[in-house]
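Why should sequence recovery work at all? Because a backbone constrains its sequence more than one might expect. Tight turns favour small or flexible residues, buried strands favour hydrophobic ones, and helices have their own preferences. The token representation captures these environments compactly. In the example below, the structure is given first.
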């Protein structure tokens, strides 16, 4: 069933379970997990290594599907959606920021940011305007033509944040977005993410081990025994 949420709810996970089959036997990672994130809300998920943070983010981003339970993204229940329809919804509605930046080395900063707009078929003139606007927003307008290797780690992650937000997604998912940055740069990047999330009304789920970053969150949740609880 597909329906629109009346309010600003962008992510809704209900009774989500996720198991994996491994050589050592089945691993039951998520065990009846519930999560709701609204527009303009920044939720940080913490938990020890292996607790299932990446698994949770991938399910919220519809990159992975739960073993059971329901997932709603931008007001749509994704159960039963075909692969193409789900890929279209994901491309339009989700921005993903990776710990390792995930930039294409042969492309300039601006070209990297433009990739998601190409995927959703945005017209060239509109693409150029959106790329310029978001690079300005992350403070990299003067670095638009540089390749990733010509940028610092913090600048590369700013490109990663710009790329994730250029489509104006309903949902931002970030997996240890500051894990490869020094603490000062990490704080700047997290402040940028929080600012953009709040001003653009994006629903954000950020996984991190770093207590310093949790200060930027509207809510901090802990993944424990496959469920979320207030930290
Ligand atoms: N595709 C998979 N196949 C088998 N097991 C998997 C798969 N993905 C994750 N797991 C297992 O699920 C558990 C949770 O992994 P996950 O990567 O979600 O944890 P995490 O909290 O993100 O860890 P970290 O903080 O180290 O990144 C681990 O035991 C992992 O080995």
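From this structural description, the recovered sequence reads:
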């Amino acid at each position: 069933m597909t329906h629109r949420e009346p309010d600003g709810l962008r992510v809704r996970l209900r009774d989500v379970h996720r198991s994996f089959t491994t050589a050592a036997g089945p691993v039951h990672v998520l065990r009846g997990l519930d999560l709701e994130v609204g527009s303009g809300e920044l939720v940080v998920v913490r938990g020890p290594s292996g607790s299932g943070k990446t698994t949770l983010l991938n399910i919220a981003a519809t990159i992975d599907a739960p073993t059971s339970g329901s997932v709603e993204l931008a007001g749509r229940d994704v159960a039963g959606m075909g692969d193409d329809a789900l890929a279209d919804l994901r491309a339009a509605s989700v921005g993903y920021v990776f710990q390792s930046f995930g930039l294409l080395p042969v492309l300039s900063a601006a070209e990297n940011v433009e990739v998601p707009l190409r995927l959703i078929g945005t017209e060239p003139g509109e693409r150029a305007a959106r790329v310029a606007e978001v690079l300005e927003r992350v403070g990299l307008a003067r670095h638009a033509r540089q390749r990733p290797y010509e940028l610092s780690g913090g600048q590369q992650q700013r490109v990663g944040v710009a790329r994730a937000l250029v489509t104006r997604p309903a949902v931002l998912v970030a997996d240890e977005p500051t894990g490869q940055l020094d603490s000062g740069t990490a704080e700047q990047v997290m402040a940028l993410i929080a600012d953009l999330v709040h001003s653009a009304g994006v629903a954000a789920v950020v996984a991190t081990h770093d207590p310093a970053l949790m200060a930027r969150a509207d809510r901090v949740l802990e993944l424990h025994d496959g469920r979320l609880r207030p930290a």
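A few observations help interpret the result. Residues 9-230 form a domain with the Rossmann fold fold (CATH 3.40.50.300).
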